[in-house]
Design goal:
heterodimer; A: mainly alpha; 3 helical TM bundles of succinate and fumarate reductases; two-stranded antiparallel ribbon; 5 helices; 74% helix; B: alpha+beta; Ubiquitin-like (UB roll); Fumarate Reductase Iron-sulfur Protein, Chain B, domain 2; 2 domains; 7 strands; membrane (chain A); Fumarate_red_C (chain A); SQR/QFR_C/D (chain A); cell membrane (chain A); transmembrane helix (chain A)
């Protein structure tokens, strides 16, 4: 008769690797909030000036700004974990030679900077 | 020098639940956990059961959980646990037969299911020819890292997805499937893909990544499993376009 251990709901509290994993997965929650804000903003835009200004006012609420700042930090943290995993999942070759992992990670961050620069130019340029 | 070693015992003829038992073990700088287990069995308590064979991290028989982390008993030393103490448990996520002996049946079933051997273009079974199969260093490099697996199963004890669902094919078996798919001498990818594409295949992995952290041979199963997702997605596109299955 064998003994069958079962995994409890708190299995992820057992070690640091699991906690970091859960933190990575949890980043979806503030991001979900940000996406809902974005969808509501687009809908408000289609409903006329009054709805749009009301949405803008809600976006300036300190609590909403706090959660959206958290969403930005969460997405950057998720990107950091994702960029590190990318070279292991999609090893790339260029001219018959393997592209090094640091180069792939740096390339992805360069992409993030390019997007930030584009957004900054669009809104403040 | 002496260290107290606590072991999770399970003696089904005595109790249906496991219990902890502590032993005081003498050690020096070269005493491994496997040496400690052997000392306990030979000098203190002959009822202790555990598996071992090579004593040099090659056979993969002596997997245990040491303070909650999957490790090979022969590959870890008492000298590093003086401050923290030592709790030895059987490998997680497997049924326990007795003390540190687990039932690896599910692991072996998954391993067999992915056909971890060269399948030739002709026979569809295995490579029949005894002719040499030459490979260039670049062809070897594609899969070599993934071929170092010793089937110790530590990655299964590190994988919460396998812990939650034992039907998940799991890190080592998916890594071996990927290893053979990457081998230019092999023609068996079409036979392996249905298993890799299935719900219990590569897509059950959520890239916790702990399997790669505990692998004693630096195989990086998490990378192999997630590379398999790329292969699986490519396979789906090809099959939708009416190409290879």
């Amino acid at each position: 008769m064998s003994y069958r251990p079962t995994l409890t709901r708190t299995w992820w509290l057992k070690n640091t690797a699991f906690k970091v994993y859960m933190l990575r997965e949890l980043t979806v929650l503030p991001l979900l909030f940000f996406l809902l804000c974005l969808v509501k903003g687009l809908y408000s835009l289609s409903q006329g000036a009054e709805a749009w200004y009301l949405w803008l006012a809600v976006m300036q609420n300190p609590l909403v700004m706090l959660i959206n700042t958290l969403a930005l930090l969460a997405s950057l943290f998720h990107a950091w974990t994702f960029f590190q995993l990318f070279p292991r999942v999609m090893p790339l070759e260029f001219g018959g030679k393997k592209v090094s992992a640091p180069a792939l990670v740096a390339g992805q961050w360069a992409g993030v900077l390019a997007v930030f620069a584009l957004v900054a130019w669009l809104f403040w340029g | 020098m002496e260290l107290e070693v606590t072991i999770q015992r399970y003696l089904p003829e005595q109790s249906s639940e496991p219990f902890n038992q502590s032993y005081t073990v003498p050690y020096d700088t070269s005493t491994s956990v496997l040496d400690a287990l052997t000392y306990i069995k030979e000098e203190l308590d002959p009822t202790l059961s555990y598996r071992w064979s090579c004593r040099m991290a090659i056979c993969g028989s002596c997997g245990i959980m040491l303070n909650g982390k999957p490790m090979l008993g022969c590959n870890v030393f008492l000298r590093d646990y003086v401050q923290t103490g030592m709790l030895i448990e059987p490998m997680a996520h497997f049924p326990v037969e007795r003390d540190l002996i687990i039932d690896m049946e599910s692991f072996l079933t998954h391993l067999e299911a992915v056909k971890p051997y060269l399948i030739s273009k002709d026979s569809k079974e295995s490579v029949q020819s005894f002719d040499p199969h030459n490979q260039t260093p670049r062809q070897l490099d594609k899969y070599q890292q993934f071929s170092s697996c010793i089937n110790c199963g530590l990655c299964y004890s590190a994988c919460p997805q396998f812990g939650l669902n034992p039907e998940f094919i799991g890190p080592a078996a998916l890594t071996l499937a990927h290893r053979y798919n990457l081998d230019n001498r092999d023609a068996g990818q079409a036979e392996r893909m249905p298993m890799i594409n299935s719900e219990e295949g590569a897509w059950s992995c959520t890239f916790v990544g702990y399997c790669s952290e505990v692998c004693p041979k630096s195989v990086d199963p998490a990378a192999a499993v997630n590379q398999s997702k790329v292969t699986s997605a490519t396979d789906l596109i090809f099959s939708l376009l009416g190409g290879r299955s």
